[in-house]
Amino acid sequence: MKRLCCALLIFFFSVLSVSPAVAQKKDAANCKDHPLLTRLPDYWIESCVQKQFDAYKFAVGKGQETVEGQFWNIRYQPPAGLSSKPSTLQVLRNVENAIKKVGGTVLASDSSKETLKLESGGKELWVEVWADYTGKYILTVVEKAAMAQELTASADAFASGLKATGHIAVDGILFETGKAELKAESQKAIGEVVKLLKADTHLKVFVVGHTDNVGSVDSNMKLSQERAQAVV
Q1: pLDDT per residue over 95-105, tens digit each?
Q2: By the 8 A CB rule, do 128 and 114 touch?
Q3: Reduced to 3 states, what is the DSSP secondary structure of residue 11?
Q4: 3.40.50.150, 3.40.630.30, 3.30.1330.60, 2.40.420.20: which CATH number matches 155-231?
């Protein structure tokens, strides 16, 4: 009986001694690295978001710039049991050096976050890397691009909206960032407004332009007025 007990104890100790020093975790379902960047060794993806089109505010100097396009957000975690985790600066420098190596530049930097920009192959990519003392880090990437407009309202819908609420929003009227020149793909939506006005020659409307919140109030007010006039 004593021999059996000792044999069991020795076997149990052996199992404990060969367990891996660093526990590995699998990436979250449907998550993978962005094509631009690999990950730090042994890290795993806790969660991710990818969208065909979205907007994100990147730090630029003392301000921010909103960039629209294809969007990725990837959250990385260090392996459990890692005796020495990378410092925040080590994570930031790894990403910075990798992007600089392919022609990218740093637009903003502080103790826990950097904004970088890369223009290559006709594409403009914006990257934010955030890290903290635990070793985890987050990559946010936007490949700048205009949204493919998939719908426009009709003259009948405009008329119904005006009768119901007294105002309507007209989707599909597009401008270049910071400019008042109409893009060619705006003609379909404007054509529907023309139909609305021709159908009711007594109708009088105000045209109001809008901008994002990048830039000063005065410059955005001027741009809004110029865009409204371009539509008129």
Answers
A1: 999 999 999 99
A2: yes
A3: helix
A4: 3.30.1330.60
